[in-house]
Amino acid sequence: MLYALVAIAVLIGGALAYAATRPDHFRLERSMMIAAPPERIQPLIADFRQWPRWSPWEEKDPSMTRTLSGADSGVGAVYGWSGNGKVGTGRMEILSAEPRAVAIQLDFLKPFEAHNRAEFTLVPGPEGTRVTWAMSGPQPFMAKLMSLVFDMERMVGPDFEAGLAKLKRQAEG
């Protein structure tokens, strides 16, 4: 019995020590080529009133409540939401809206608190515009520990891909 308790303590200690070595910040991103110029794509991102047309989270809770405030679009536009466990509760505010980049402060309140930054970059090319959607933020110890079980890339990456695919359909349509 004592050996089993020692073994469990060693495993837990090992997991805690390994989690402590994880990076203090995270970043995940996805990109997609969209056959449209940046000036057709950027307004879909910089205007929260357009997000229901392409945001991947709109389908996860069609009955979530949304609150728009601040500027109509661009810097100072605010989007608040409250929904089921799949979308949680939070707030976004556009910090900058340039012709080829949009930066958003992203504050999650439920199911857990997190303060991240979302960035969209639009790089024109011969086939259209490469749109990159990235999210980054601090990774405190509890998030490091959770990352041993829950992989952010697998949890959020597919949503970014789905959102970019819907954004592509909107911009190209």
Distance N to C terminus: 66 Å
Give the overall form: elongated
The ordered string of helix (H) and strand (E) elements is HEHEEEEEEHH
Going by helix content, strand content and strand pairing, the class is alpha+beta
The oligomeric status of these chains comes to single chain
Number of helices: 4
Short description:
Helices cover 32% and strands 38% of the residues. It has helices at 2-20, 38-46, 141-146, 152-172; strands spanning 25-34, 65-70, 77-82, 89-98, 101-110, 114-125, 128-138.
Give an overview in words:
With 173 residues, the protein is an alpha+beta fold. The protein is built from 4 helices and 7 strands, in the order H-E-H-E-E-E-E-E-E-H-H. The protein has helices at residues 2-20, 38-46, 141-146, 152-172, and strands spanning 25-34, 65-70, 77-82, 89-98, 101-110, 114-125, 128-138. A 7-stranded antiparallel β-sheet has the order 1-7-6-5-4-3-2, with helices on one face. It is elongated, with a radius of gyration of 19 Å.
Present the secondary structure layout:
Elements: H1 2-20, E1 25-34, H2 38-46, E2 65-70, E3 77-82, E4 89-98, E5 101-110, E6 114-125, E7 128-138, H3 141-146, H4 152-172
Characteristics:
single chain, 173 residues, alpha+beta, 7-stranded antiparallel β-sheet, 32% helix, 38% strand
